[in-house]
UniProtKB/TrEMBL annotation:
Gene3D superfamilies: Single helix bin (1.20.5.490). Residues 51-90 are annotated as: Disordered. The lineage of its organism: Eukaryota, Metazoa, Chordata, Craniata, Vertebrata. It comes from Parambassis ranga. Belongs to the TSC-22/Dip/Bun family. Keywords: Coiled coil, Cytoplasm, Nucleus, Transcription, Transcription regulation. This is TSC22 domain family protein 1. It holds the Pfam family TSC22. Residues 61-73 have a biased composition (Pro residues).
């Protein structure tokens, strides 16, 4: 009987250690997400915040972004008209 009891106590202690580690990881992750959330709130425009709050209240998914992300121009804007020649005329 003592062998069963000591085995169970050992198993419980081991499980407690695993759970403590998971709690520690979750607390760290929560802290990171809170910092990210705070940063995003400070960078968001008032219009974006209003749109977000409206989505939260209605429970609707976020609308697709209509403004293209900053970066190099697309190939369509770089294409030159076909009638344009830079060579000498004959």
């Amino acid at each position: 009987m003592d062998l069963v009891k000591s085995h169970l106590m050992y198993a419980v202690r081991e499980e407690v250690e695993v759970l403590k580690e998971q709690i520690k990881e979750l607390i760290e992750r929560n802290s990171q997400l809170e910092q990210e959330n705070t940063l995003l709130k400070t960078l968001a425009s008032p219009e974006q915040m209003a749109q977000f709050q409206a989505q939260v209240q209605t429970g609707s998914p976020p609308a697709p972004q209509t403004v293209p992300p900053p970066g190099p121009p697309s190939t369509a804007t770089l294409a030159q008209p076909a009638s344009h020649n830079s060579g000498p005329s004959a």
